Amino acid sequence: MTALPDDRLARVDHYENFPVASWLCPPRLRPPIAAIYWFARTADDIADEGDAPAAQRLADLQAYRADLAACCAGQPDSGRWPNVFGPLRRNITAFQLPEQLLADLLDAFRQDVEMTRDGAVHPDRAALLAYCSRSANPVGRLLLHLYGVQDAKALAQSDAICTALQLINFWQDLSVDLPRGRYYLPQADASRHGVDPRAPGQTPHRAAATLLVGELSAWTRKLMLEGAPLVHRVPGRAGWELRLVVQGGLRVLDRMAAQGFDTLRKRPKVGARDLPLLLWRSTRM
């Protein structure tokens, strides 16, 4: 598999737990939400798809960052990613999207490349939260910007939800990430359980690894519940979409618990069969 051409990156298919710019979103906000999504999705693909060496990925992310700066300044970009920066440019102008939040996402993708290259592990939960503050939280803050919700409490709740969603993906995807050299189990927690965060499935520590994932999942559920009251602050249909996002994340944690937190063996998913339950739980919020 070779490195993907620039403009094909935006068309790579990905499994997504949660909807993006769905029918629940107000029509006028679908274009900026889609533009933000494809900006982030394409950058993630630059960092992770194909077999390009780390040096090339970092150079491409730097070029992508330069195009973002040009786009925000109203200047011509390189033209390498027209399907990304064309729509993004229009929506930055129309909705005054903050450049720093978009740039934070790129900084997180750069860190992904560097840590994978070096085989590095996040030392503790604080380091993992710092990473999530750039890899996940900016998306929630951008969405709140679009809805005109900017108070400190709402931003903190959004950060809790977005961080929880990111962490859920980490614990859910262990069977996928570990073989690719992506290590998200924090060293301090892993060491306390006698587990190698780079190879948690090694015997005789498999049982300890499931206990570790269970403990991290409980921490993640607490974060999600801390942020959940935000659903009452987001107006209209978007508030209902956020309810489904929150309940979708919690349902993944339920699926993990049902299989004994052994996500090293099997990746839990939420599917169509879960929708009635998600709707019921969303209504009860």
Summarize the helices and strands and which ones pair or pack.
Blueprint: H1 30-48, H2 54-72, H3 82-95, H4 99-118, H5 125-135, H6 137-147, H7 152-172, H8 174-177, H9 187-192, H10 206-227, H11 236-258, H12 275-284
Helix pairs in contact: 1-2, 1-3, 1-4, 1-6, 2-3, 2-4, 4-5, 4-6, 5-7, 6-7, 7-10, 7-11, 10-11, 11-12
Label this structure with key terms:
285 residues, mainly alpha, Farnesyl Diphosphate Synthase, 12 helices, 63% helix, globular
* The named CATH superfamily of the largest domain: Farnesyl Diphosphate Synthase
Q: End-to-end span in angstroms? A: 45 Å
Largest sheet: none
- The arrangement of helices and strands along the chain is HHHHHHHHHHHH
Mean pLDDT: 90
What structural class do helix, strand and pairing data support?
Answer: mainly alpha
Briefly, what CATH class of the largest domain? Answer: Mainly Alpha
CATH architecture of the largest domain: Orthogonal Bundle
Say what the CATH topology of the largest domain is. Answer: Farnesyl Diphosphate Synthase
Number of domains: 2
**Which outline best applies?**
globular
Uncertain stretches: 1-21
What portion of residues is helical? 55-70%
Radius of gyration: 19 Å
Number of DSSP helices?
Answer: 12
Residues in β-strands, percent? under 5%
Number of strands: 0
